[in-house]
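Homework help board

Subject: predicted structure for assignment chain

Our instructor gave us this sequence and asked us to write out the predicted structure in token form, then describe one feature. I got the tokens but I'm not sure how to describe them. Can anyone check?
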Amino acid sequence: MKNKLKVFRAMHNMTQEDLAQEVKVTRQTINAIENEKYNPSLELAFKFSKLFKAKSKRFSVMNNEIK
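My token output:
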């Protein structure tokens, strides 16, 4: 499942910097999440969810199976 962060950010006319400031992370973190180099923490996924009024699972990349 690919995350939809870039799509939601574009729909709200936000730059990576704007979003980073809103959720209190660096622009590099937003870039890494969008490029699937970093999975957002549950807390960060909930912040995105609240900001964009969307389900938090849209911002998670589920590549690893929980054991």
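Reply (TA_rk): Your tokens look well-formed. For the description, you could write something like this. Helices lie at 5-11, 16-23, 27-34, 42-52. That's the kind of observation they're looking for.
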